Amino acid sequence: MAGNKKGIVPFICSFCHYGLLGGALFFDDKSMTYRTNKVTVEARFRNLRIPYTEIVSFSYMKALPIVSFNMADGEKFSFMIFNLKRFKTVFERIVRIMEMEAVFDRALELIEALPGSAKELLEFQSEIKNLSDYYESPDFKADFEADENGKVPKGIKRGVLSEDGIYDLLENNKEFLHM
After folding, report:
1. What fold characterizes domain 3-82?
2. What's the predicted TM-score (pTM) here?
């Protein structure tokens, strides 16, 4: 089961650090956390918090179920994930919602600040187009449904998943463009 009303089920994994260190990855509002109770694991890695906002990039290994995270401070963390397909779905959904939420918030700010923000709003149209494409995509429908089913961490800002909110924003943007 990918999740339920109580949240996202943790992922059994191995932290790739001088060998494979068994544990689990947990998702919450602001981060993923690798946890293990193994006393042979360095203390700083037994409850390793990986904030979403500090992940600069991530990649998947082709031959093995391994995901690597490059962090803003230069560190790199790699994990062998058991059920990588489900992990990709959950993690990429969180990243996508956060990215689209940032565009949604900025577009709202610019529209609310009109007419003083007209130039900036015009320059922001490619981002709004990405938001519109997302709203019309299967990803939006899947993200909306996942949220309704408790499969998105509860504390993640998710105004972008409000059908009325995103629709109204896009309509207000169309009105602005026709002025």
Report:
1. PH-domain like (2.30.29)
2. 0.88
